[in-house]
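We give its fold:
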Amino acid sequence: MRTFVNIVRWSLLAVLAGSSAPILAAPFDLGTFQAPDGAITVTEGGETVEPYFALKALLIAKDAGLDVSLPATRFISWMETDAGTGGIKTWPRFRRSCRPDAGVRWAPCAKADADDALLALWLTMLAEMPGTAKGGSNARTSERELAALYERREGVYEINSDTPVALLMDNAEIANTLNVRARLALGRNEPKHAAMLNAQEKSLVLALPHIFPVTDGLPAASTQHEDQVSFYPDQVLPMFLEAENISSKAFKPPLLSYSAWMARYREPWLDGDADAYPWGLVALVADRHKDEDTVTCWLQRAETLRHGAHWNVMEEAVWQALLVHRSFPREAKTC
């Protein structure tokens, strides 16, 4: 409720300010997802920090126009502590951190979920928030770390140094972040750096259809063959790739189009039959297609899931990102 009130309040301030005044960005309100020390947990008031989830949530919110400057600056600072890096000053630095309860200090408890996607998101956050990182976690070091995961023969990135497997989701994210960072580099008047990033993106996108073949409109999720097909990671892939600005037509044969995917998976996705988690990234794609009914259906479902066991910081970012663009609630016709 507090988040909804804050968003409405900031939206009204923007309207009352008049067209000649700059529009005030609504703040990304993390509530208890962010600890007092700046750590961003996977769940509300949780005991685990998985850096990928935190960075992805911040970037989703920022892309939607929410003001993430305060939570992002605090989280970047936390990432550079021993809890965030695992006390390791060389690759792989970032770790999953845990604490048994709120009164205990964070401590590294596992490797990060995927080094390749995490590094790509970290580099993007540093580019979006220049001047916030310290010397030990600068962009040049992280660029070298990400480059070490590039498998030149296949032309894609592998999960980490211990796992010679490439994931389509990770590589789609990396391609998108290369594009974002190239645009930001141009804005900083760094044309050579922008050209290098654009070339890397183009090469990666061209490699994806060769490494991840398509069957019945769905691409392979991994270079490690799996017989069982499930909503995640297999069936959701066409929507995930569109969220990362990878065209379905980049693959041969092409991936399921938005309308074809919705015809096949909309009902089980919205009903929660396909997966226990809300998968708000699909709602973001629906918003791009101006599919207001589907977005509203997802928001209605999200209201019942918020603060529950299957709600994480990424879903919270999507919920706030979609809500801030809606001037009034409305009922969907087909949920």
